[in-house]
Amino acid sequence: MAIRIDTIVVGPFEVNCYIVWDEASKDGLIVDPGADADDIFRGVQRSGAHPRAILLTHGHGDHIAAVDAVKSKYNIPLYCGEGEEKMLADASLNMSSALGNPIVTRPPDVKLKDEEHVVIGSLQFLVLSTPGHTEAGVCYLHEREGILICGDTLFAGSVGRTDLPGGSMDKLIQSIRTKILTLPDQVICYPGHGPRTTVGAERNSNPFLNGEIYV
What beta strand segments (E) does the chain contain? Predict the structure, then answer.
């Protein structure tokens, strides 16, 4: 089995929406459909993937605006971390109302717990609870392929902001140190914004993690 990932950059905040699929079975996932549903649909068509579920790393408005459109088109379930459903239902909590475009979604079909294995068709990911950017954000690890979809927890050379509702820099750094930096250096990290990176690169050069920036 080979895992393929295409990135569709969506919305004014340039969110990375990921289309993830098994090249053999074509079973696919759509991660963080944050806006521009038609672009996502075209990306799915180009990939040849058959979407089986939507996975959310967290519930901020810039990551969820196209959830209902994607869910309706493909008739697939929505997954998020247990506790994050509050943000999906509250435009104030997910910050979309502050930007003048209130966004809520349908309730999630599945609420995920830390260290739970998500099996969707031929795809399997380990859920890593990583609070800090939000109260119940999660990352998704494909252990065999060495792929981590890390949302806004960790970026290339930076970390997620923590000055929004539910944010905590202490919790965020603890999440990264205990859940991400314990992974092998070669694990490829796919963040919610910006370029991909690796665990090793962030371990060695991320100023928030190597002591260059005091947090």
Answer: 3-10, 15-22, 27-31, 50-55, 78-81, 110-112, 117-120, 123-129, 138-142, 147-151, 154-155, 158-159, 188-191, 197-198
Cβ neighbours around 209 below 10 Å, total: 21
Helix axes 37-47, 67-74, angle to 10 degrees: 40
- Rounded to two decimals, the pTM is 0.96
The 3-state secondary structure of 45-97, one letter per residue: HHHCCEEEEEECCCCCHHHHCCHHHHHHHHCCCEEEECCCHHHHCCCCCCCCH
Per-residue pLDDT of the chain (215 residues; tens, 9 = 90+): 699 999 999 999 999 999 999 999 999 999 999 999 999 999 999 999 999 999 999 999 999 999 999 999 999 999 999 999 999 999 999 999 988 889 999 999 999 999 999 999 999 999 999 999 999 999 999 999 999 999 999 999 999 999 998 899 999 999 999 999 999 999 999 999 999 999 999 999 999 997 655 45
